[in-house]
Design goal:
Layout: H1 2-70, H2 76-84, H3 91-101, E1 108-112, E2 118-125, E3 128-131, H4 134-141, H5 149-152, E4 156-158, E5 162-164, E6 167-177, E7 183-192, H6 193-202, E8 211-215, E9 221-223, H7 234-241, H8 248-259, E10 262-272, E11 278-292, E12 295-304, H9 305-308, H10 310-345, H11 349-357, H12 360-373, H13 382-405, H14 413-439, E13 448-452, H15 453-465, E14 472-478, E15 484-488, H16 489-505, E16 512-520, H17 523-532, E17 541-550, H18 557-560, H19 580-591, E18 594-600, E19 604-614
Parallel strand pairs: 14-16
Antiparallel strand pairs: 1-2, 1-7, 2-3, 4-6, 5-6, 6-7, 8-9, 8-12, 10-11, 11-12, 13-15, 16-17, 17-19, 18-19
């Protein structure tokens, strides 16, 4: 009877595995989709912030251009030469300086009289200044110089963007007055917007593989990294590549941009492959309108959707691989159990029943414990849920294997097989338990509590060290019983994780050493710490120094000045986001701790964090 009950229980367990697999797959899928959505929204928020930064920088750069043009009227030698026909010796050198300082964005300056007629114009090419013929200058004046300029001018202004061939231009107008305030004429400085844009882009960096563009109200590109696209809209370019293509998605994109001052977008772009086939690519981005004089420009940045969500896709692959490996292990264990059960059938049933009857009460107690364990709630995010399910798979396997093993001695043939099953199952259970412990992030964890500073840092170091490759050697020296500190446990985990990750990456994945120490600071250092922080005047405070030192490549002084900036990184795009030390710095600022970096190229880096502890238990604890 008991043998049949055991067999029936294992048959039920075998039947439940497909159901558990299906539930786990569904949980993984919905969790993955949720994480992907959050990642996409975060990516769009980052791109929108980049658009705002780029727009502001663009407006400031245009204002600087206007200021440069305004400085022309203060050059008496140039103004007197143009409007009074006075021969001066310095005007040409002043002109050359103006052209050279513009980075080739300006190579023409036009002077008009009060009637709008061309007085003279200068062109700069190959280090030479020449006077231009009127017919060559007309392309910069005709149709662009406002008829009511003198009635509405406020000194320095900009015109609307226009096109000459494949280049886009914008005129900067500067009125010229004499000492009595009377208008003498106007200076026109055409700015090559494409060259201006290329120079501007060289100082702008985006974490994602995207780029900014600028359009006018007609949706034509004014500035674009690809010169051949200037003067055309995204719809026109698509129709040129594929005359029969459906452009409704792109038309909706333009309609949204024309109807909103700013916003976030999601659309599909198309690129020709080597075999002349259209390749559809999903992109996300953001845009904002800015006013440049009387003109309105649309600034837009977009990036590849797959690149933004790449980290989530990689995480999904890792989770799926881990999931498949554990399931394969469970199936192998079940097959082995089935073989053992088949062998048991040929043994004498009476002897087997006598041994099992003696342990009937023990079996009943274990079944009750197993039933209680099976009622554990599924918690956490997708990874934690899956690992928790793995524990539910492994627990009955271990329990039944232990139960069966008690019926054998070391001399029995099946004893070693059972021990192998138990060993594999216990390793799997230990691994899943460690993952659960590291990924746990409950509300209680996120509240500030009093912790032994030695214990909480030692625990965080142990958890993080377990996920760093074995090629990195750790030397850990943490003094015991240093005192109690009030902190959120997750902040300590994030602090330790980012410091150790930074130290590991400085070795570029090669063999290296990481030295971790925690010790009390000297009395002098304690006095300096308390004096400079919010803990000044508290007599019951001490301080400890948490130090992480690596033997990696080190950093230059220039790099050290930027390491706390968000998104700053010297690593490849697939190695880091530039947020690690920014997170560390944010945690230090949150608690008013102190951080110090010492590094030298070729010798490694040491990062030290000073944090307080209570020398006696606070009354409000």
């Amino acid at each position: 009877m008991i043998v049949k009950r055991l067999l029936n229980r294992n048959n039920i367990l075998t039947a439940l595995i497909p159901c558990l697999l299906l539930v786990s797959v569904l949980l993984t899928w919905f969790g993955y989709r949720g994480l992907t959505k959050i990642t996409k929204e975060n990516g769009q928020n980052f791109i929108f912030q980049s658009v705002q930064f780029f727009s502001k920088a663009l407006e400031l750069s245009i204002e600087n251009k206007k200021e440069d043009v305004n400085n022309l009227i203060f050059d008496d030698s140039l103004i007197n030469h143009v409007y009074d026909n006075l021969e001066t010796k310095t005007y040409e050198s002043h002109l050359k300086h103006i052209f050279q300082s513009s980075n080739n964005e300006v190579n023409t300056i036009v002077f008009l009289d009060t009637s709008g007629n061309i007085t003279t114009s200068y062109h700069y090419d190959n280090q030479q200044i020449t006077v231009m013929a009127d017919q060559d200058v007309r392309q910069f004046v005709d149709g662009h110089f406002p008829n009511n300029y003198y009635s509405e001018s406020d000194g320095t202004s900009t015109g609307k963007a226009y096109y000459i061939g494949q280049d886009s231009y914008m005129n900067i107008y500067q009125e010229v007055r004499n000492d009595r305030g009377e208008i003498r004429g106007t200076i026109i400085v055409p700015v090559n917007l494409q060259l201006f844009f290329e120079k501007f882009l060289s100082d702008f960096e985006l974490s994602y593989n995207g780029y900014p563009v600028v359009k006018n109200r007609k949706m034509d590109y004014i500035m674009h990294p690809s010169t051949e696209r200037v003067g055309q809209s995204i719809v026109e370019l698509r129709q040129q590549d594929s005359p029969d293509a459906d452009v409704s998605d792109l038309e909706q994109l333009e309609a949204q941009q024309l109807s909103q001052q700013s916003g976030k977008v999601e659309f599909y772009s198309y690129r020709k492959t080597d075999d002349n086939q259209d390749k559809k690519r999903r992109r996300i981005g953001a845009f904002q309108w800015i006013d440049i004089g009387d003109d309105s420009w649309l600034v837009m940045i977009d990036a590849d959707y797959r690149e933004v969500t790449r980290d989530i896709a990689e995480m999904g692959f890792v989770i799926a691989t881990l999931f498949v490996m554990v399931i394969i292990g469970c199936l192998i264990a079940l097959v082995a159990l089935k073989k053992i059960q088949d062998k048991e059938k040929v043994e004498k049933e009476n002897q087997f029943l006598k041994e099992l009857q003696a342990r009937k009460d023990e079996l009943h107690e274990k079944e009750k414990k197993l039933y209680e364990m099976s009622k554990m709630e599924t918690i956490g995010i997708v990874t934690t849920t899956i690992v928790h399910d793995m524990n539910n798979f492994l627990t009955p396997i271990i329990a039944n294997a232990e139960l069966i093993a008690e019926g054998y001695t070391q001399e029995d043939e099946q004893y070693d097989d059972l021990q192998e099953i138990l060993k594999a199952a216990r390793i799997g259970k230990e691994m899943s338990t460690n993952i659960l412990r590291f990924s746990k992030n409950s509300e209680e964890t996120n509240r500030q509590h009093l912790y032994d500073v030695s214990d909480v840092i030692r625990e965080a170091v142990a958890q993080v060290a377990s996920i760093i490759p074995e090629s990195i050697n750790f030397e850990v020296e943490i003094e015991k019983d240093l005192g109690m500190t009030q902190v959120e446990r997750v902040d300590i985990q994030n602090l330790v994780y980012n410091l150790l990750k930074n130290a590991y990456q400085s070795n570029h994945g090669e063999q290296g050493k990481i030295f971790i120490t925690l010790k009390k600071v000297s009395q002098h250092s304690l006095a300096q710490f308390l004096k400079r922080t919010a803990y000044h005047g508290k007599d019951d405070m001490g301080a400890v120094l948490f130090e992480v030192r690596d033997t990696g490549t080190g950093m230059s002084k220039e790099i050290q000045e930027q390491i706390y900036e968000p998104f700053f990184t010297t690593k490849n795009e697939d190695e880091g986001t530039g947020l690690g030390l920014f997170v560390v710095s944010s945690i230090v600022k949150k608690y008013d701790w102190q951080i110090k970096v010492a590094s030298k190229l070729g010798e490694g880096t040491t990062i030290s964090v000073t944090l307080p502890y209570y020398t006696s238990t606070p009354s409000n604890s």
